[in-house]
Design a protein that fits this description.
heterodimer, A: mainly alpha, Multidrug-efflux Transporter Regulator, Chain: A, Domain 2, 5 helices, 4 strands, B: 309 residues, alpha+beta, Helix Hairpins, HSP40/DNAj peptide-binding domain, 4-stranded mixed sheet, 8 helices, 11 strands
């Protein structure tokens, strides 16, 4: 086992401070560009900008892209299946949050 | 090392067809997928199921596994017999996840063979891989900001190109106002790059330790505030313990249970600070003495009240 100690002062909150190009999102989500484009076409991700070169993905896209990549790989889902799963997961999260607010969980 | 019964893991008979194995795997993978399931231990089950499927879907591996015989039970101490795999060849060497010791002793470790780091070369420039990890922090850290020392284990290559575990201790600044599910990006702290390509980034996904009093919903905090019946009926000023310290709160007269009272801006701080909601609950004192029983009877006499009409 090798041990190293590193001190970091520079962190940024992805969801608030970071916008990504398609190249950066591919890198961060370990996903090929054509896969990202198919998710945009299906509405799984909604970047600002009109063409792939101009696309700017918000920080939230990273979480969605990683989730979409995991579901695609692990469950062999196709693009519409991923889109449906993400919508349903979001709805479940919203319902759970509502129950939690009333202390029903 | 413990024996693992891959047929049992997938819930299929040893005589199951490839289609049956695949079907059972898919069903369990959907059930235990860590992004889908909220069940405790789902991630562990998901890995076990994936490992079992990696062996049983492959006719060569399945045949080798079957050759060890059916007398083994899950959890039994086990050492692979010598030459157990003679005549079988597994050369893919990359199973893309962390496997059990049992699996590794039979089919080899992830990324062993063929996946050594390439020599640095002037015309090969790749940015290093981005890494992702989850960290748990206290809700208080989001209110005050904090410095946290975290340790991560990552596979890395030593100077001979062998895969070794590396432990890295990182001192990370947790910014005030961070919320659960958000990611911190630590530039250049991911995998090493190649040639002129820089190192990848490290992303840390934030989660809060559960809190006995507070429930967190995005920026907002919810808490139960127990009241006596007379406080709820007559109104009162009570002290509410907020994460920023105690705050006096006015309870309006005739408040009912379940009512939410908002303390604006007392949630997680930030440009748009969240709110704190006190959810009123009314607690009845037990009638466990003559005096208390009499008080309840007087209470009944004073009202002409039937909640069932």
């Amino acid at each position: 086992m090798i041990q190293t100690n590193i001190t970091i002062f520079q962190t940024s909150v992805v969801e608030e401070e970071v916008h990504m190009t398609i190249v950066e999102l591919c890198q961060a989500a370990s996903t090929p560009a054509d896969q990202i484009m198919s998710w945009v076409a299906e509405g799984v991700l909604s970047p600002a900008g009109s063409s792939p070169q101009d696309w700017r993905f918000s920080g939230n896209s990273l979480r969605r892209a990683r989730l979409a990549a995991a579901l695609t790989k692990d469950l062999d889902l196709n693009t519409p299946g991923v889109a449906l799963a993400l919508d349903l997961l979001e709805e479940i999260a919203e319902l759970r949050a509502r129950m939690q607010r009333s202390n029903l969980l | 090392m413990k024996f693992q019964d891959y047929y049992e893991t997938l819930g299929v008979a040893r005589t199951a067809t490839q289609d049956e194995i695949k079907q059972s795997y898919r069903k369990l993978a959907r059930k235990y997928h860590p992004d889908v399931s909220k069940e405790a231990g789902a991630e562990e089950r998901f890995k076990q199921v994936g490992e079992a499927f990696a062996v049983l879907k492959d006719p060569e591996k399945r045949a080798a596994y079957d050759q060890m015989g059916s007398q083994w039970k899950s959890g039994q101490d086990f050492t692979p017999p010598p030459d157990w795999n003679a005549g079988f060849e597994f050369n893919d060497g990359n199973y893309g996840g962390d496997q059990s010791e049992f699996f590794e002793s039979l089919f080899g470790r992830q990324a062993r063979g063929g996946q050594r780091q390439q020599r640095r070369s002037a015309n090969m420039n790749f940015k290093g891989q981005d890494h992702h990890a989850k960290i748990m922090i206290d809700l208080n850290d989001a209110f005050q900001g904090a410095k946290r020392s975290i340790s991560l284990q990552m596979p890395t290559y030593d100077s001979n190109g062998n895969l070794v575990a590396q432990e890295r201790k990182l001192d990370v600044t947790i910014p005030k106002g961070i919320r659960a599910g958000q990611n911190l990006r630590l530039a250049g702290q991911g995998g090493p790059g190649m040639g002129e390509g820089g190192a990848g980034d490290l992303y840390l996904e934030i989660a809060f330790h559960p809190h006995p009093l507070y429930r967190v919903d995005g920026r907002d905090i919810y808490m139960d505030l127990p009241l006596t019946p007379w406080e709820a009926a007559l109104g009162a000023s009570v002290t509410v313990p907020t994460p920023d310290g105690p705050v006096a709160m006015n309870i309006p007269a005739n408040s009912s249970g379940g009512r939410k009272l908002r303390l604006k801006g007392r949630g997680i701080p930030g440009k748009e600070a969240g709110d704190l909601y006190a959810v009123l609950t009314i607690t009845l004192p037990p009638a466990d003495s003559e005096a208390h029983k009499e008080a309840y009877s007087n209470f009944a006499k004073a009202f002409d009240f039937n909640p069932r009409t």
